[in-house]
Design a protein that fits this description.
Blueprint lengths: L5 H9 L34 E11 L5 E12 L14 E11 L4 E10 L5 E3 L5 E4 L2 E6 L11 E7 L3 E8 L5 E2 L6 E2 L7 E18 L2 E16 L7 E11 L4 E9 L9 E5 L5 E4 L5 E4 L3 E3 L5 E3 L2 E5 L4 E6 L6 E4 H4 L1 E14 L2 E11 L14
Antiparallel strand pairs: 1-2, 1-13, 2-3, 3-4, 5-6, 6-7, 7-8, 8-9, 9-12, 10-12, 11-12, 12-13, 14-15, 14-25, 15-16, 16-17, 18-21, 19-20, 21-22, 22-24, 23-24, 24-25
Length: about 375
């Protein structure tokens, strides 16, 4: 899921006025959408908002652990610009990069914000490749249906204090989140996304932090969403979990938080079994309960860094902790937004058996309200 909401604010701040006579409008996510791969890894330019989101837990040969996040965002500004110039802003591109080092108690991050001008940044619609300056994500190799030759994903990004150069196998087949091709985010029809996950991607390559370079391997989770809507006015933010368990099952869970402290009934999740089959989880199927451990940011935000996860129907009870409390990606100076995105440890019971695991936790809306809709036309 994401820090995805504030992207629209940036789009409005840095973009240009829409064409006075638009030839087309942004498309909304509608039920009945049928995913196809590798087609749907590529960009969907008729939707206003799109992101490719990778989070991973990896280790060096000596067992030293690292976490990483790299996210490529595309935000539509003007579907059909009247200005024929190559510099006319149809889309805005933002990329976030972060590396976590629990042993060194370090968290480093960087960002790029670029208009989709003449080759500066972009996302191809006919094949999966997105880039922002010299940062990129895309497919290498091919995946033929039924042939067992799944594509690999190549990620490259390097900032002042953090960098990644990784190759990821797809692992399991894509897990489609939601019902009937959409993941409903709010009460209004169309306030939804097309959303799938690659939940267990074997990963190899290098991670760099403060100039130190490490050969690593491990597992990555990838989310890809495209839509034309954002949070509704009463929705403040969300808590999102991706969890990879030692019994070869995975969990995606999120709860939408309202300004009055309640949880939106559109909160949901997905349970992926060892063979890749998915089970949709409704808001009533699970509970996410904050524990006593917290991280207080210098901006005043207080993030719960300990959680319990309970899914009674599937006999899942988990405790979530983190090896690094400060994993806040603070963009307050440049965008006025901050969110917590970091690696987590998991332990508990699954199907009556003891399990352990790892994953990522994202918490948004703890610094300022993100609740609004940008339907975009």
């Amino acid at each position: 899921m994401m820090s995805k909401v504030f992207i629209a604010m940036l789009a409005l701040a840095f973009g240009q006025a829409p064409s006075p006579k638009p030839q087309a409008t942004w498309q909304e996510a509608k039920a009945g959408y049928v995913f196809s791969f590798p087609r749907d890894h590529a960009a969907h330019p008729d939707f206003k908002i799109e992101w490719w989101y990778y989070t991973g837990n990896v280790s060096a040969a000596d067992g030293r652990r690292f976490g990483y996040q790299v996210t490529f965002f595309r935000v539509g500004i003007d579907h059909t610009p009247a200005n024929p110039s190559k510099w006319a802003v149809r889309d805005l591109y933002m990329t976030h990069l972060a590396v976590s080092d629990p042993k060194g108690q370090r968290y480093r991050y960087d960002e790029k914000l670029t208009r989709g001008g003449p080759g500066l940044a972009g996302a191809k619609a006919d094949t999966y490749y997105t880039w922002n300056d010299d940062w990129s994500a895309g497919l290498t190799g091919s995946r033929e249906p039924g042939a067992g030759n799944r594509a690999r994903h190549a990620l490259k990004a390097a900032g002042k204090n953090a960098g990644i150069d990784l190759v990821l196998d797809e692992g399991k087949t894509p897990a489609i989140n939601g019902i009937n091709g959409i993941n409903q985010k709010g009460a209004r029809e169309g306030n939804a996304s097309h959303y799938y996950s690659l939940t267990r991607m074997p990963t190899k390559g290098t991670i760099t932090i403060d100039g130190e370079r490490f050969e690593v391997s491990g597992l990555t989770w990838m989310d890809h969403e495209f839509s034309t809507s954002f949070l509704e006015p009463e929705q403040r933010g969300w808590d999102w979990f991706s969890i990879q368990l030692s019994d070869n099952r995975e969990l995606m869970l999120y709860r939408m938080r309202r300004a009055d402290g309640s949880h939106d009934p559109r909160s949901s999740g997905t349970l992926v079994d060892a063979s890749g089959r998915t089970t949709h989880l409704t808001n009533t199927d699970f509970t996410l309960t904050p524990g006593r451990s917290t991280f207080k940011s210098t901006n005043g935000a207080i993030y719960p860094t300990e959680w319990t996860v309970s899914i009674p129907k599937h006999k899942i009870d988990l405790t979530v902790t983190t090896p690094l409390a400060d994993q806040e990606l603070s963009l307050v100076q440049s965008t006025g937004v901050a969110y917590w995105e970091g690696m987590i440890d998991v332990a508990g019971q699954s199907g009556g058996q003891a399990v352990r695991g790892s994953g990522y936790l994202e918490m948004t809306g703890y610094y300022g309200s993100l609740g609004r809709i940008f339907s975009g036309s």
